[in-house]
Write a structure and sequence with these properties.
Elements: H1 12-15, H2 26-40, H3 42-51, E1 73-77, E2 80-83, E3 88-91, H4 106-119, H5 128-141, E4 145-149, H6 152-167, E5 171-175, E6 178-181, E7 184-186, E8 201-204, H7 209-218, E9 222-228, E10 230-231, E11 237-238, H8 241-253, E12 257-261, H9 273-277, E13 283-287, E14 297-301, H10 303-306, H11 327-340, H12 343-364, E15 369-374, E16 377-382, H13 400-412, E17 415-416, E18 422-424, H14 431-447, H15 449-452
Parallel strand pairs: 3-17, 5-8, 5-9, 9-12, 12-13
Antiparallel strand pairs: 1-2, 2-3, 4-14, 6-7, 10-11, 13-14, 15-16, 16-18
Helix pairs in contact: 2-13, 4-11, 5-11, 7-8, 12-14
The structure holds 4'-deoxy-4'-aminopyridoxal-5'-phosphate (PMP).
4'-deoxy-4'-aminopyridoxal-5'-phosphate is lined by residues 96, 151-153, 156, 179-182, 228, 232, 261, 263-264, 287, 297.
Length: 454
């Protein structure tokens, strides 16, 4: 039986810590914030104590676990989420980019409801919905051919296997700090223990032009190079144009397949980050919001590579997956891209994101806070040296205490943020809420000036 975290009535001394204050050490401020957290979220605590009986740690997605226990969300509407404890937050987690459309976009709701009613589920067949979404994504992201998967992880898995099959080579170059899915994670200079194909990765330094060139051109037997144009798990560390162009050029030079992971970055422009950076990947992997909020993934690109999946050929590779073409994702994704996230909306949203990031950056001067990102994807860091430009996770000397305190206190202000400091914006988040966040971040920096000042 796990120990109970339920607190008894607060003592007089404890009551004193029931308001946010800039007094005391970082550890004391965190302890006080934690006590307030426990007090504000009793229903979540109860649910957590039940959840740990059937799931390890009460969780099935490591990234969203938080200590001392997670807040349980009950519902979401538009840009907000409401917890089981009755607290409503402006959602700045945005399902790590997948909730671009928010929680109740009317056109997507209609598409889902009418699909359930009029189409029915699990048709065990090819459908018009599938072709229509495929054609739209091919034209939007300049892909010759596309295939759907269940997730971004699977999209990368298949893209890599396609590259290996096509080239007859074995190794894959990836980059430090990269994340390509649950079994493709390179938070440091080697794959995590749960990554697949442990021995076939060559890990090069992200944003290091010379190292990318050396590793891609000098390692031999390279089937693919897999890279993100902006590293989501950075959080939001932007790839430089020189670096990305070098990756593409070196991959071409050695006949490796250049795979651009746009699972997160495709939302940064109508045609994804490749359009912004003038890249022409051989294969692109996609996911998240492109299924309209339903589980989704896709990979596509050059016709000659994708043709290996042509089931009309006896030499083809099989690519199966029960839910690859699930009608809900196909319908919701199609409506989301054709009617909601049109090219004009994509440009506008990313401009709004750039402005929001700049306002936060303006607050960060002289503090340990650093704000990175591009368009609607923003990263807030608290760093011991306050370094303002980050080219790699290696340059990040995290101030873990400040990071944690920020998360606790932003939540108290009504902002649902990810502990990592990753902020992907949701369409339709009111400008007043973004402005309120900027103000509250400023207040946080002032309130804890002794801890946040450089
Ligand atoms: N690639 C990138 C860049 C991602 O950010 C993610 C998910 N965070 C994935 C792949 C994996 O996608 P999924 O979670 O849908 O498997």
């Amino acid at each position: 039986m796990a120990p109970s975290l339920i607190t008894t009535q607060p003592t007089v001394q404890e009551l004193k810590i029931n308001v946010k204050s800039g007094h005391g050490t970082a550890a004391e401020a965190i302890e006080a914030a934690k006590a307030r957290y426990v007090e504000r979220n009793p229903a979540s605590l109860k649910l957590h104590e039940e959840a740990i009986k059937s799931m390890p740690g009460g969780n099935t997605r490591t990234l969203i676990h938080t200590s001392p226990f997670p807040v349980f969300m009950k519902s979401g509407k538009d840009y907000q989420v409401t917890s089981e404890d009755g607290n409503t937050y402006t959602d700045l987690v945005g399902e790590l980019t997948a909730a671009l459309f928010g929680h109740s976009q009317p056109l997507i709701q209609d598409a889902l409801i009418s699909t359930i009613k009029d189409v029915g589920m699990n048709l065990s067949a090819t459908t018009k919905l599938e072709y229509q979404h495929a054609a739209l994504l091919c034209s939007r992201f300049k892909l010759d051919l596309i295939r759907f998967t269940n997730s971004g992880t699977e999209a990368n898995l298949h893209a890599i296997q396609a590259a290996k099959h096509y080239t007859g080579k074995r190794k894959v170059v990836v980059f430090t700090g990269g994340y390509h899915g649950g079994c493709f994670s390179f938070p440091e200079d080697k794959p995590t223990i749960n990554s697949v194909d442990q021995h076939e990765w060559v890990v090069a330094e992200y944003n290091d032009v010379a190292d990318a060139k050396a590793k891609i051109e000098g390692s031999g037997d390279i089937a693919a190079v897999l890279v993100e144009g902006l590293q989501g798990s950075g959080p939001a560390i932007v790839g430089s144009r020189d670096f990305l162009q070098q990756v593409q050029e070196s991959a071409r030079k050695v006949g490796a397949i250049f795979v651009l992971d746009e699972v997160m970055t495709s939302r940064l422009a109508p045609g994804g980050i490749q359009e912004l950076e003038g890249l022409k990947p051989d294969l692109t992997t996609l996911g998240k919001y492109l299924g309209g909020g339903i589980t989704f993934g896709a990979f596509g690109g050059r016709e000659d590579i994708m043709a290996i999946y042509d089931p009309r050929s006896t030499k083809g590779l099989a690519h199966s997956g029960t839910f690859n073409n699930n009608v809900l994702g196909m319908a919701a994704g199609y409506v989301g891209i054709s009617q909601v996230y049109t090219p004009e909306v994509a440009i506008k949203a990313n401009t709004q994101g750039d402005e929001f990031r700049k306002k936060l950056q303006a607050l960060s001067h002289g503090t340990k806070m650093t704000v990175t990102g591009r368009g609607t994807i923003i990263g807030i860091h608290f760093l011991k040296d306050g370094k303002k430009e980050l080219a790699s996770y290696r340059e990040r000397q995290d101030d873990h205490d400040l990071k944690e305190l920020f998360w606790f206190e932003m939540m108290e202000d009504g902002f649902w943020t990810h502990k990592r400091g990753y902020i992907p914006l949701i369409l339709g988040t009111p400008q007043e809420e973004l402005d309120r966040f900027v103000k509250n971040v400023g207040d946080f920096l002032k309130r804890h000036e002794r801890l946040t000042k450089l």
